[in-house]
Prior knowledge:
Layout: H1 2-19, H2 28-35, E1 40-52, E2 55-63, E3 72-75, E4 80-85, E5 95-97, E6 121-126, E7 132-137, H3 142-147, E8 152-157, E9 166-175, H4 189-192, E10 201-204, E11 211-215, E12 219-226, E13 233-238, E14 241-247, E15 250-256, E16 261-263, E17 268-274, E18 282-287, E19 294-302, E20 330-338, E21 357-359, E22 376-378, E23 383-390, E24 396-400, E25 405-410, E26 419-420, E27 422-425, E28 430-436, E29 441-447, H5 450-454, E30 458-463
Parallel strand pairs: 1-4, 3-8, 9-12, 11-19, 20-23, 22-30
Antiparallel strand pairs: 1-2, 4-6, 5-7, 7-8, 9-10, 12-17, 13-16, 13-18, 14-15, 14-17, 18-19, 20-21, 23-28, 24-27, 24-29, 25-26, 25-28, 29-30
Bound molecules: CU-O-CU linkage and copper (II) ion.
Amino acid sequence: MTLFTRRGLLKTAALAGIGGVGIPAMGRLGGWAAAAPEPMVLQTAKIQTKLMDGGLTRDVLTYGNAGMPPVLRMKKGEPFAARLVNAIDDPTTIHWHGIRVPNKMDGVPFLVQPYVYTGDHFDYVFTPPDAGTFWYHPHCNTLEQMGHGLTGVIVVENPGDPKFDAEFVLNLRDWRLGDDAQFIDQFRPRDAARTGTYGTVRTANWLDQPQYDAPAGGLVRLRVAITDVTRIYAFRVDGAEATVMALDGNPVPERFSPDALLLGPGQRMELAIRMPDDEGAIVSLRDVRGTKPKILANLRATGGSLKRDVRDIAPLEANPVKEVDLTAAQHISLALSATAENVPSDGICGSLGYSFWAINKVPWPGDTPDPTAPLAELKLGKSYVIDMENLTPQSHPMHLHGMSFKVLSSSTRQVQPLISDTYLIQPNEKVQLGFVADNPGDWLLHCHIIEHQKSGMTSYVRVV
Length: 464
Ligand code: C2O
Ligand code: CU
């Protein structure tokens, strides 16, 4: 009831802003209507849907009420507004993964905003500074909420983007379902202490191996986001010429073909694919990692060939990320390790009750800053280099909120100077990530294998 009324008010205020109808503006809402477009409502819902043969799956979570969370389209440099309305039986928030938002909009409960309780709402408004592929998800009880469906893809468009003949967005994720198509335990402690617990049903856009039509001989932009809580992918494209144009929301300095390209949870890639000339020919995006390789999605060539050339695609415009000053940069050492402490802790916001992992020897299982102090306090505008070392036998997709870093060097491989928000660090690798601390606030830094994050591999930096 309350919800409905508030939403009504919001619509009224927005209308008043546009039409000048004589309804007194409701303080904040009125002001907001003038500054931003009418907010899109993202209402959490519990639904039943078909994810595998054998019946409908109950207790699936989404935003809206029609299947997968919508692909959100924003425009670089233009304000975006969304109202999160919480209609599920659990507190939640939204984090805009990879988008450099103001701290108050970052969606981390307690650190930057209150919980959004059942029946309550929270208004997000920000202007995405960067174009690319991003995603959104809760930052509360995340293993459960993301595991049950709350992961959506964001496309930030740039008017200067090159033209393609078709564009597709793939939301890649798994589900932990039993033979009866119902959810089973989201994790097993012994797996959480290793690679994380894998899902049993693998999907792209909530479908098993979907197929989409694209013009023969045409150029396709394929945006792929790994929104799974655990799985690391090794991508390959069969049946067509394909090049990686962007990773994690930023153009790559040099395009390359995805030959078993490893990307972890939270990461995104954009591919330029030149469809085959023959009608009916199939192009497959595959995951070739592990013992059970899988076709994730297919594209089928249709119509007469457009005879395009992949070299026709102009470079993507670089995002306005400040250049790190390496001569002045201060270094921050960061060691990722397993921890021997195995204390059950009853943290809030979905702690798993275990600590298996640590950053600089401190396991931080919850989402609250208490009692851990920030890993480092950074000066606004200064350059920093994170010297990160992985002392574990597992890979970890390490994600920094609020700021983008540049990959400077790795001890084990040749790296491009990519701009990113998530780096998949391999066992025994040391990597240097440089960035300018240009966004004030408290910013999480954590592994995006959610079981690792929730059992210790989390910390945060403070920019003041
Ligand atoms: Cu994708 Cu801390 O999150
Ligand atoms: Cu990890």
